[in-house]
């Protein structure tokens, strides 16, 4: 794992990958590098205009890329179902649950969930369960990689207040949604092992990578000073999106990745080559993971099939 870079990605020819949030940042880099190494890649994007621009950019960077665009809004479960239905006859070898929102002012999804929990966890939960038959059919080598964050340490999931209706704090909500990602992977890996499936469920996080994720909240509230401050911090201390995507790419393609592994940057959850990352003890709780799974099934209406 020492010094692993995108050039170490094994040949992905014959494999089909779905990458959520692939129109910019980590998702775009992940999609590009998978395509560069031979995978057919579906860019799952909320905004069609931005998705088309990303598709054009990717094709200019990788002229022989086999890529296509899919419409997916993780904050709308009807969109998640429609996207999954559109892939009903497709072979899927890899699902990268990358899309997310960070530290937004209090908002709700189309279905009435707190936006960060609904988008970062529930949308990906539903998508993964709906696509599992396609992943199982792909056989050995199939993987689900969910992108969490080192900031999951900010908050454990509260089963009594999943939507933070008692008191909303944007950064705690973000941390809880990222803890939910890890609990989801923990339970998914357990269920796949119990059924003897070769599908591997793992997690990754980018450290502090410069993307537009950090500026979305200030921009929504028209806090120009905060947006400029974040942009300055990104330039000063963050690593690039190319480096930030490496843990995800490692978890998605490197040989020997184990179920429920959490891959992140080497240096203090911040930057560097991908290594096995530390995680909060609560994200390894079987009881919490099962409880969140059962709640997620009830909230989304999507069950493990």
The tally of beta strands, per DSSP, is 8
Please tell me what the overall shape is: globular
Classify the secondary structure makeup into a structural class. alpha/beta
Q: Main beta sheet, described? A: 8 strands, mixed
Strand content: 5-15%
- Give the CA-CA distance, first to last residue: 34 Å
Query: H/E series, N to C?
Result: EHEHEHEHEHEHHHHEEH
Major sheet: arrangement of strands? 3-2-1-4-5-6-7-8
What would you report as the Rg, rounded to the nearest angstrom?
18 Å
Q: What are the low-pLDDT stretches, counting only 5+ consecutive residues below 50? A: 214-220, 229-236
Into which percent range does the helicity of residues fall?
A: 40-55%
Q: What does this entry look like structurally?
A:
- With 305 residues, the chain is an alpha/beta fold.
- It contains ten helices and eight strands.
- Strands 3-2-1-4-5-6-7-8 form an eight-stranded mixed sheet, sandwiched between helices.
- Helix 4 crosses helix 10.
Give a short overview.
By secondary structure, the chain is an alpha/beta fold.
Name the descriptors.
305 residues, alpha/beta, eight-stranded mixed sheet, 10 helices
């Amino acid at each position: 794992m020492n010094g692993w870079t995108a050039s170490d990605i094994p040949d992905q020819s014959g494999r089909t990958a779905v990458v959520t949030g692939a129109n910019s940042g980590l998702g775009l880099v992940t999609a590009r590098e998978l395509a560069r190494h031979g995978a057919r890649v579906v860019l799952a994007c909320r905004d069609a205009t931005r998705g088309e621009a990303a598709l054009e950019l990717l094709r200019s960077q990788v002229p022989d890329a086999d890529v296509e665009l899919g419409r997916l809004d993780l904050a709308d479960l009807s969109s998640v179902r429609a996207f999954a239905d559109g892939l009903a006859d497709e072979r899927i070898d890899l699902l990268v649950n990358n899309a997310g929102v960070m530290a937004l002012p209090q908002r709700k999804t189309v279905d009435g969930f707190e936006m960060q929990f609904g988008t970062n966890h529930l949308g990906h939960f539903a998508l993964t369960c709906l696509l599992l038959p396609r992943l199982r059919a792909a056989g050995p080598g199939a993987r689900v990689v969910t992108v969490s964050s080192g900031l999951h340490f900010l908050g454990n999931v509260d089963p009594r207040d999943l939507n933070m209706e008692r008191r909303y704090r944007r950064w705690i909500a973000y941390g809880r949604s990222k803890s939910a990602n890890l609990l989801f992977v923990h339970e998914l890996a357990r269920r796949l092992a119990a059924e003897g499936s070769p599908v591997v469920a793992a997690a990754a996080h980018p450290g502090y990578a410069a993307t537009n994720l950090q500026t979305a909240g200030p921009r929504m509230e028209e806090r120009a000073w905060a947006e400029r401050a974040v942009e300055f911090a990104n330039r000063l201390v963050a690593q690039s999106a190319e480096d930030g995507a490496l843990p995800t790419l490692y978890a998605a393609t490197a040989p020997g990745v184990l179920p429920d592994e959490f891959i992140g940057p080497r240096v203090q959850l911040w930057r560097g080559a991908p290594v096995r990352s530390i995680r909060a003890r609560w994200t390894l709780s079987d009881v919490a993971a099962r409880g969140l799974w059962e709640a997620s099934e009830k909230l989304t209406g999507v069950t493990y099939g």
